[in-house]
Specification:
Largest sheet: 8 strands, mixed
Number of helices: 9
InterPro entries: FdhE-like_sf, FdhE_C, FdhE_central, FdhE_N, Formate_DH_accessory
Pfam families: FdhE_C (PF24860), FdhE_central (PF24859), FdhE_N (PF04216)
Structural class: alpha+beta
Radius of gyration: 19 Å
CATH architecture of the largest domain: Alpha-Beta Complex
Number of strands: 10
Keywords: Cytoplasm
Subcellular location: Cytoplasm
Helix content: 25-40%
Family: Belongs to the FdhE family.
Shape: globular
Number of domains: 2
CATH superfamily of the largest domain: FdhE-like domain
Strand content: 5-15%
Length: about 300
Amino acid sequence: MTFASEIPLSLGDKSPLALKPLLAAKPQDIYRHRAERLETLAEGSPLADYLKLCRSLVATQLKLAEAQEFGPAPELDMTQPIPLSLQYTDDNHYWLVQLQSLLSEMLPLVPAAVAGVIRELMALTPEQQAAYGNSLRQGHLSDVPAQYSLFLWAALSAYWAHWAPMVISRMDIAAVKQTALCPVCGSHPVASVIREEPREGLRYLHCSLCETQWHYVRAQCTNCDDAKQLSLWAFDDHQANIRIETCDHCHGYTKMLFVAKDPRMEVVADDLASLGLDSQLSDKGYSATTLNPLLLAHES
């Protein structure tokens, strides 16, 4: 075990057209864009109240990112294929400092009912907060009271999104393989993003925790790798900005956001605001293989 900051940088291919397996996040830019997009999407939306709450939460994550008070660099085993996975970071509780800061910032911004939830969460012991955080990262969402999940995940995400770029810079990029889960932290993606850089039409999955994007070939199921039983849906327009890829092998689906068609789009915000598409896919017998950090539904 060693501190990630002590490991030499991995230089990789510097060609501007080289396919980059991993795209490191810039948390401040991401949170700023996400907050702006949530504010826009809230206008006239039946989800307006919830979108505004999420906008306040993301704006608070931005404050944390700008403050840069994340403690010492995490101690990691960089020889492992997914260095920030829970298996290697379950005893790292520095993120709890971010949780308390986030909850304190949010308390005066929310309605009374939500403020009550925040006070309950603040009153829990650090051990209980940490246990809930680990349960969320394991995908055991039902082990955590639903009213706490949004805030716990936001603090976890702010913490690990800060450290992920440093870890990526020290990973052996050549060894990164196409995978359904984030190669950096092992979390589920939010959705697919179709990018125009470094080359047109590349698909990247966006991590729900550390905000990393990783390359995944198109016309292949992001959940089970099947390439023979895929369908691409667009419910209003075949050239829609948001389309859905379904797989009849695993009966899963993921949304694809064509951000070049509308640069205002943001993966977490637009996935959340397009819940009507999820309802239609559920009616057709498909299940999401992704996770939105602003909508942590309990597993069946």
